[in-house]
């Protein structure tokens, strides 16, 4: 079964999907969010889960550098809790410290323009979140 990775923000949600073997993560898209329209976000993710036969949804959990969970982390935890009402898949929170910075570095090193980076940064962060999870899960199997 596949895994879905999410980088949840207030304006966008980056989405990545694993291959059927759970070896690699690929960026899928970036969902644009409308304020006060969270149900649409949950429904869009539920549709992706169903269409792709996803068994695990990995949501990035932004932690502070000292490991504590701040306001953004609490926001992502609340998102995960609400999403659980819409999907029939396991939800895993994954430490995402520095993934956006790493995604930015990859795109800068690839000489992607600032304008194009802005369009794909969330999808790239979701890919790094999911790949980190897949790498760790593969080592424990």
TrEMBL record:
A Pfam family per the record: RuvX
InterPro entries associated with the record: RNaseH-like_sf, YqgF, YqgF/RNaseH-like_dom, YqgF/RNaseH-like_dom_sf
GO cellular component: cytosol
Protein origin, superkingdom: Bacteria
Protein EC: 3.1.-.-
Keyword Nuclease (UniProt): yes
The entry's keywords: Cytoplasm, Hydrolase, Nuclease, Ribosome biogenesis
One Gene Ontology biological process: rRNA 5'-end processing
YqgF/RNase H-like domain span: 1-103
Compartments reported by the entry: Cytoplasm
GO MF term (any one): hydrolase activity, acting on ester bonds
Functional summary from the UniProt entry: Could be a nuclease involved in processing of the 5'-end of pre-16S rRNA.
Recorded family membership: Belongs to the YqgF HJR family.
HAMAP family given in the database record: Nuclease_YqgF
Protein name, per record: Putative pre-16S rRNA nuclease
Species per Swiss-Prot/TrEMBL record: Alkalicoccobacillus porphyridii
Top-level taxonomy: Bacteria, Bacillati, Bacillota, Bacilli, Bacillales
Gene (name only): ruvX
